[in-house]
Amino acid sequence: SVSAAFQEHLQHLGLQDFPCGLSSWNKSCLNARGRPRAEPAGVEEAVPLGEEPPEVLLELLRDQHSPWALPPDCSPQDQLLREASVLAPELLRGSRVFQVVRSLRILDKGVEEVDEGLLQFQQLEELVLSANHISRVTSAHLPRTLKVLELCCNAVGDLQDLCAQPPPELQHLGLGYNQLCGPSQEKHFTVDFWPNLVSLDLSFNSLTDLLGLVSQLCTLQNLRILVLQGNPLALIPTYRGFLVDSLPKLSILDDIYIWPEERQQFHGLARQPELIRSEARVVVSIGEMKGLPNPEAFRQLEVGSEGPVITYSYCVTYEF
């Protein structure tokens, strides 16, 4: 579950181990935090023997050559938690840590379940669960404060549970590289479920009904970024032009900015749905073939020559 993966991640961060947490290396300094300072400004308190000031402990976390430094691939949220565990370790004790986390990224950890333990993150705004094994998401288990939900590279094939009570403030929904297919899923992309959605990634699924999907997306008045590449519907010849004209507020389609000239070029295409056919044309260009005899290596035999004639034939097969 997500909760179990988070607890494992906390252990990996070592928020209670040197130089983090509250222990003998900073005990007196933290105990004195709540007492008024009697010394004039600019006079530093003496650090007892065996303890380290917060500045030194932070340096151990930030120096890339330190044995306590975080790996380069760690998120800014991990760095924030480590530093907070030095400056204010009492804020990260027990369940208090859930009040601090605003961004949670659990990538490629074998997560299968989005459990109700996520509701403990009352300030969570970004949830990234890419490259796991999640097949369904229950919206009742998602914090209402979520603004970003990324589920790329999972096994999501049905959105009914996710759309039961989706987070009302969600601005980005990432569902690329999943198993969405058929009109039964396209009906979930309306303003009734996502009133504040700005960015939507549906790339590399199995969506085929371009007209049906566009009729739903038209209700998303705040939608500015849309990614549909990798779906069968993206092979339709009029695909991009139809989307550009049907969604006038869209700014970026398939990671390509929509310029005014392009919008003018496709003006009126949305009123001609008959141009959209349920077929596609694929052009394959072979640039180079290796491991085959080169025909130019064989000289043309002279007329009347008794030499044998050798014929080569090749067959290239594509499976779609």
From TrEMBL:
GO CC terms of this entry: cytoplasm
Keyword Repeat: yes
Lineage, highest ranks first: Eukaryota, Metazoa, Chordata, Craniata, Vertebrata
Signal sequence annotation: none
Keyword line: Leucine-rich repeat, Repeat
Protein name: LRC43 protein
Stored SUPFAM superfamilies: Outer arm dynein light chain 1
InterPro entries for the chain: Leu-rich_rpt, LRR_dom_sf
